[in-house]
Design a protein that fits this description.
20% strand; 425 residues; 37% helix; 5-stranded mixed β-sheet; 8-stranded mixed β-sheet
């Protein structure tokens, strides 16, 4: 029979790869806890209307990329293409936003039907950070300081650059949109096909085009900053002052617009030149209208998301993967002869006394020589050997697999202290 393969663009994560993912996830979750953020979890599948109303029907996500289906009741459901709309829905449903502020984070798979390529998959994994109830630039500066600290703790801060921009209010953006459309319609034939389509659906996305000829046309186009209100300008100036005070370097990018309709005022991206075309590592912005758009009361909000695949890829490309992530075992327990039950009990005793070490018991039988080969293959530092003679005398043999230290047979009552010395604990 033909073997069944994984769905295109939806990859497996193998045991050899998972330690690096766990390393990244642990650093991120620890950092967010230290900043006072609480974790929230929500379903993978939501009502399609949630994303249509939240993301915007004229976006590429809604038009081309969502995995949408009808369930047995005829309801239209979609697999989440991003997390912000789901987070808002969950907060509203459970009353977390009324007269409250929230600092939240989540992680998990998202789904978009795109052409799979390096750093971009159809099932990808994101860590999202969302804040609600804060209208000032201070929460924006906090989140940018948090992400800057994350890059330092991952050892990649010198390879990423912060770009920021202000989109202003929806009214200012509409005025700018009209001016931009007027300018581009006179040059429509010179635009690439995708930009021509966006001219009638989502013209601001043309600013983000990667086509050189289109970018050249934009050099003389109207500039969004000329349409910002005094309030938006003051808000953005406060943010830049806070970033400067915190020592966070940034670049102003007037063409940074982001791809979702719900953004307003501040938007940002952390970008790198070490991932080819997929150079955005983390991105987000302010979305003060989204909660009301989804049926709630007006609530200021600011957040971001980062792709775990891209972070892992960047660490790998930069040779910034910490050593020691690939050693799953510290102690390997081998049993020789009819001592299996006593060997399992011994392993459990070691786990009780030394819960911070990784202990693996041999399973599946085999000769003493084969058991030691398997112990060596696991990368274990020490093998504990329990034979029939040792078991009868309540002893155990300690064999060092990574050093020239002498093998020794000790009483089982001395084992923990000997292991503590071996691991310098």
């Amino acid at each position: 029979m033909k073997k069944i393969q994984s769905v295109k663009g939806m990859n497996d994560l193998l045991p050899s790869d998972s330690p690096l993912w766990q390393h990244v996830e642990a650093i991120v979750s620890d950092l967010l806890i230290r900043y006072g953020y609480g974790e929230i979890r929500f379903p993978i599948v939501e009502s399609t209307d949630l994303f249509k109303r939240g993301i915007g029907e004229a976006t590429d996500i809604i038009e081309k990329e969502m995995y949408t289906f009808s369930d047995r009741n005829g309801d239209s459901l979609s697999m989440r293409p991003e997390g912000t709309a789901s987070c808002v829905r969950a907060c509203e449903q459970h009353g977390l936003l009324y007269n409250q502020t929230q600092r939240l984070w989540y992680q998990g798979p998202m789904f978009r039907y795109e052409r799979p390529q390096k750093g971009r998959l159809r099932q990808f994994h994101q860590i999202g950070i969302e804040t609600f109830g804060f209208s000032g630039a201070d929460i924006e500066a906090e989140l940018l300081c948090l992400t800057a600290r994350l890059w330092r703790e991952l050892g990649i801060s010198e390879y990423v650059t912060l770009q920021i921009n202000s989109l202003g209010t929806s009214e200012a953006r509409q005025q700018y949109r009209d001016a931009l459309v007027t300018y581009l319609e006179q040059r429509k034939e010179e635009l690439d096909a995708d930009s021509q389509r966006r001219l009638t659906t989502n013209p601001l996305r043309i600013l983000d085009s990667k086509v050189p000829a289109t970018q050249a046309l934009l050099n003389d186009a109207p500039v969004l900053s000329d349409y910002l209100s005094d309030e938006s300008k003051a808000h953005f100036e406060e943010l830049t002052c806070l970033l400067t005070a915190a020592g966070i370097a940034y670049e102003l990018n007037p063409r940074l617009v982001r791809g979702l309709d719900y953004y307003s005022n501040t938007v940002f991206e952390w970008v790198t030149t070490h991932l080819g075309a997929q150079g955005t590592v983390c991105a987000g912005g302010r979305y003060d209208s989204l909660v009301e758009q989804l049926g709630g009361r007006p609530t200021p909000a600011f957040g971001c998301a980062m792709g775990i695949e891209r972070l892992v890829l960047l660490l790998t490309e930069l040779n910034a993967v910490p050593s020691g992530l690939d050693q799953p075992v510290d102690i390997y327990v081998a049993a020789v002869g009819d001592v299996k039950a006593k060997a399992f009990a011994l392993a459990e005793q070691v786990r009780d006394a030394m819960p911070f070490l990784r202990v693996q018991s041999h399973c599946g039988g085999g000769s003493f020589k084969n058991q030691l080969k398997r112990a060596d293959k696991t990368g274990a530092t020490v093998a504990l050997i329990l034979g029939e003679i040792e078991a009868a005398n309540e002893q155990v043999t300690i064999k060092h697999l990574r050093t020239d230290a002498e093998q020794q047979t000790v009483m089982q009552t001395e084992l923990i202290s000997k292991l503590q010395a071996a691991f310098e604990l």
